Amino acid sequence: MVRPDMLWRMPGVYRPQEDSWLLAQAYGSAGPPPGAKVLDFCTGTGILAVTAARAGAESVTALDIAPRAVFTARLNAWSRRLPIRVLRGGLGVAHRLAPFDVIVSNPPYVPAPGGAYDPRWDAGPDGRSVVDPLCREIPKLLRPGGFALVVHSEFTGVDTTLEMLRAGGAKATVVARERIPFGPVMRSRTEYLKQLRNDSAADASVLTVENETEIETEEVVVIRADRPEHTG
């Protein structure tokens, strides 16, 4: 596990926290093949790229659209003498470099009411402005037999993610979960999240975890999507 106090991080770059650690643990438990070609999508500090490189990946590419994140991830790779290629870009760049054996991603996924927007975590009114395009493309970015690991909150719509990945031909399931207290951003949106909970039938689990008046925690989940070796 990469220690957070040993990571370089420029101001404005997402700070690794519980979702990052859960995804890193899931990567280690997933048994990535030796010499894997790995993509870390929405890399931030590069923590997952570093995790993959240290675990024996032969090729690691880290992508982010934010220039400061790209610089930060490069610095964390360089300071560890790890052969990680860090590029600025999104799914278009990923397609040019595909296919991959493994994809890991901690994308922005926080539901953002009204005009709220911080690119480190905000992802539209339902939290899916990045997750949806990623789910559509994951099966196309993986080589047969490859797998992806994506982390996001229950409020983003776990069932929706599973359904989208399966619709693309992947086998998808939740492989890790952890309930954590709200951080400052989620606490500031309690009323909005309560409304999402009441209005959406995407995740029945959200309706039963908290009582009707208080929402103080969220469940963060890691979803695994496998592209079958053979189709048809």
Molecular structure report:
With 232 residues, the protein is of the alpha/beta class. The chain has a single domain, classed as Vaccinia Virus protein VP39 (Rossmann fold, 3-Layer(aba) Sandwich), CATH 3.40.50. It has helices spanning 18-30, 47-54, 67-79, 91-97, 131-141, 158-167, 184-187, 190-199, 204-209, and strands at 37-41, 59-64, 84-88, 100-105, 142-153, 171-181, 217-226. It has a seven-stranded mixed sheet, sandwiched between helices. Strand 2, helix 3 (67-79) and strand 3 form a beta-alpha-beta unit. Helix 1 runs parallel beside helix 2 (47-54). The longest helix has 13 residues, at 18-30. The radius of gyration is 17 Å and the shape is globular. It starts with 17 loop residues before the first helix and ends in a 6-residue tail after the last strand.
CATH architecture: 3-Layer(aba) Sandwich
CATH fold node name: Rossmann fold
The rounded distance between the terminal residues' Cα atoms is 39 Å
Mean pLDDT: 90
Largest sheet: 7 strands, mixed
Order of strands, main sheet, comes to 3-2-1-4-5-7-6
* Computed structural class: alpha/beta
Reading the helices and strands in chain order gives HEHEHEHEHEHEHHHE
- What's the level 1 CATH class? Alpha Beta
**Number of DSSP helices?**
9
CATH superfamily descriptor: Vaccinia Virus protein VP39
Our Rg estimate from Cα atoms comes to 17 Å
Helix content: 25-40%
Number of strands: 7
Strand content: 15-25%
Shape: globular
Q: How many independent structural domains?
A: 1
Poorly predicted runs: 201-213
